[in-house]
Amino acid sequence: EGRQQPNPGRPDAETLHFWSRFIAPAVRLAFRPALEGAGNLPREGSYLLVANHSGLGNADIASLIETFSNRPQARFPAAMVHPVSFNSRLAGGWLARLGAIPSTYDAALGALAQGVPVLVFPGGDIEATRAVWRASCVDFGGRKGFLKIARQASVPIVPMGIRGSHFTAPILFRSKRLSKLLVFP
Fold it and tell me: Who is most buried in 44, 59, 80, 184, counting CB within 10 A?
């Protein structure tokens, strides 16, 4: 079920140092990420940051890590990541050290109970692999679990829009029947 991460939303210093030294320069060069409106985020208490997901998610995630790690006034959210990602020793350890949590109700409610903001991409794989000509459309695929989490935890929902990352990995075709197997970038 929902394994709790030891420090949700609190990346360890060594991991952030590695990130800022070796990965951040490439992210800034490739994507030029910007976090607009960070001053509007709640300064205290937990909240659910609900965002769209684009371009297979790689540019989204890298850009969010970069922008939040450079903004001390914007508290680092615990990003919800597919639980299978934590099964890999390398990826799972890296994600945990960045403060990510498995995308389960238990993990989200646990982080919110600790006063940590939680980032969720309700559209997940459906939205991240939509065709490039639908880049400006937000498609959560009917998923509403984030509403249940916010209601259960009694936290506000803060919407966040991500733009531009869909063009970093443009999807030309996705089969509805074989959506897990047939994605042509």
Answer: 80
Give the containing element (helix H, strand E) for 89: helix 89-97
Q: Backbone dihedral region of 146: left (phi > 0), alpha (psi from -120 to 50 degrees) or beta?
A: alpha
pTM of the model: 0.83
Per residue in 104-125, pLDDT (tens digit) is 999 999 999 999 999 999 987 7
Integer Cα distance of 175 and 185 in angstroms: 12
Torsions phi, psi for 108 (to 5 deg): -65, -45
Task: Identify the H or E element spanning 157.
Answer: strand 157-160
Alpha-carbon distance of 24 to 18, in angstroms, equals: 9
Query: Among 113, 120, 78, which Cα is nearest to 97's?
Result: 78
- Whether residue 146 is predicted with pLDDT greater than 90 in this model: the reply is yes
Average pLDDT of the chain to the nearest whole number: 84
Structure tokens given for 141 = 């695929």
